[in-house]
Design goal:
Elements lengths: L3 E5 L6 H5 L3 E2 L2 E5 L6 H14 L4 E4 L11 H9 L4 E5 L12 H18 L11 E4 H6 L10 H13 L4 E5 L14 H20 L19 E3 L4
Parallel strand pairs: 1-3, 5-7, 7-8
Antiparallel strand pairs: 2-3, 4-6, 5-6
């Protein structure tokens, strides 16, 4: 890529981005209001990248839990034909080296339930390490998504599948964050599963989103998503 654009959503006072210059060489940074949530920062960042004419848009956590070394694999998957590539912890080769068993269970079984209920076959739809074609984000009307938190990630992947897009999953090693704390809890998992259940049941009758070309059917884990390579 010849240039890049970064949008951040600080959970505290956004001192670092505002102390930094507006650009570093070919990279530019913008700051989303801290109280609007990181999903608002993603929507803003996607919009900025589209306005600047980028063909591919990448999404990565800034807490050092996502290894930048995996980025070429995500980009390669999209360039090979995928409409969206997800850095997955749950395809062969994916790992979570530092998580305790209870946190692994919350994430793994929550993702499994989402995959079965929504029918898209994605093993890690809550992962925030992704690459998209710009045309994909425009096609799924990302700016009109409503979900917050981890549900935002699930909704984006679900819309890509409903839209008829292809989803590749690339194995990654997810390292626990160096700074900050996870917002994942059993309460969050229950809330997500409740909403995912509603989406799956509702869309089996008639897809709610007008751009849908598919609807959930019988669960087919791993059939809709395409797994790509190993690191």
């Amino acid at each position: 890529m010849s240039s890049s654009s970064t949008t951040t959503a600080p959970t505290g006072p956004p001192t670092w981005p505002r102390r930094s210059p507006p650009s570093w060489g070919r990279s530019r940074s913008s700051v989303a209001p801290p109280r609007r949530g990181w999903e608002s920062a993603y929507r803003a960042g996607f919009g900025i990248a589209i306005d600047r004419g980028y063909d591919l848009i990448c999404q990565i956590d800034a807490d050092l839990s996502h290894d930048p070394a995996a980025l070429p694999s995500l980009l390669s998957a999209v360039r090979a034909g995928a409409d969206m590539a997800i850095g997955s912890r749950y395809v062969p080769g994916g790992t979570i080296p530092h998580w305790p068993a209870y946190r692994r269970a919350m994430s793994r079984y929550g993702n499994l339930y989402a995959s079965l209920m929504l029918g898209h076959g994605v093993t890690d739809s809550t992962s925030g390490y992704r690459a998209y074609r710009t045309t994909t984000l425009e096609g799924i009307e990302f700016q009109n998504t409503k979900a917050n938190g981890y549900l935002f990630q699930i909704e984006l992947a679900y819309r890509v599948w409903l839209w008829g897009g292809s989803i590749a999953e690339v194995p990654i090693a997810f390292t626990d964050r160096v700074r900050g704390q996870s917002k994942m809890s059993w309460q969050v998992v229950v809330e997500e599963m409740t909403m995912v259940t509603w989406w799956g049941l509702r869309d089996r009758v008639k897809p709610h989103w007008h751009g849908a070309r598919r609807r959930p059917g019988l669960p087919r884990l791993g059939r809709a998503a395409r797994t790509t390579g190993t690191r």
